[in-house]
Amino acid sequence: MATADSIYVDPSALLKLYLHERESATMSLWREKTRGALPITHHGRVEVTNGICLAAHRGGITEEALADALASFDEDLAMGLYRQADLLWRATLTRAAALSRAYSAKLGTRSLDVLHVASALELELRSFLTFDSRQQELASAVGLKLVVPGPRR
């Protein structure tokens, strides 16, 4: 099993720790078993925060649940369940553009999918966790080991 510090976790998978979604129970069990701080980029933090707020905007959670989810995320950051992973943005975006040219026409990956895989590569992480099948294909195609805590979809 990969260690937490070597795994890039797609923010949409992290979001499942703070909202009740289909894979939330699976993700929570995986996180309980995976000790250590997961790397998270600044844009990953924005994505998790924005995902929680969008759930409130869309009526998926109450104002109270919004406040609780944001507080839980902030607490996890403060407790060291994540470590800030800093990227060189020019290099990451250059790599993302190259990945788009090489794979997006075939795999149908979206910009954020490509950006997260490029981020993992730039951070020199070896493993990648996502529930998104196209992102899994891209991560695998570029040599990242997939960490899939539940059945693939």
Give me a quick take on this structure.
The chain is mainly alpha-helical and 153 residues long. 56% of the residues lie in helices and 10% in strands.
Give helix % range. 55-70%
CATH architecture: 3-Layer(aba) Sandwich
What portion of residues belong to β-strands?
Answer: 5-15%
CATH homologous superfamily classification: 5'-nuclease
Structural class: mainly alpha
Mean pLDDT over all positions = 95
End-to-end C-alpha gap: 21 Å
What is the radius of gyration? Answer: 15 Å
Poorly predicted parts: none
Task: Describe, in plain words, how this protein is organized in 3D.
The structure is a single chain. Helix 3 packs antiparallel against helix 4 and helix 5 packs across helix 6 (111-122). The chain contains seven helices and five strands. It is globular. It has helices at residues 11-14, 24-33, 42-57, 63-78, 89-107, 111-122, 133-141, and strands spanning 7-9, 38-40, 82-84, 127-129, 145-147. The chain has a single domain, classed as Rossmann fold, CATH 3.40.50.1010. The mean pLDDT is 95. The longest helix is centred in the middle third of the chain and has 19 residues, at 89-107.
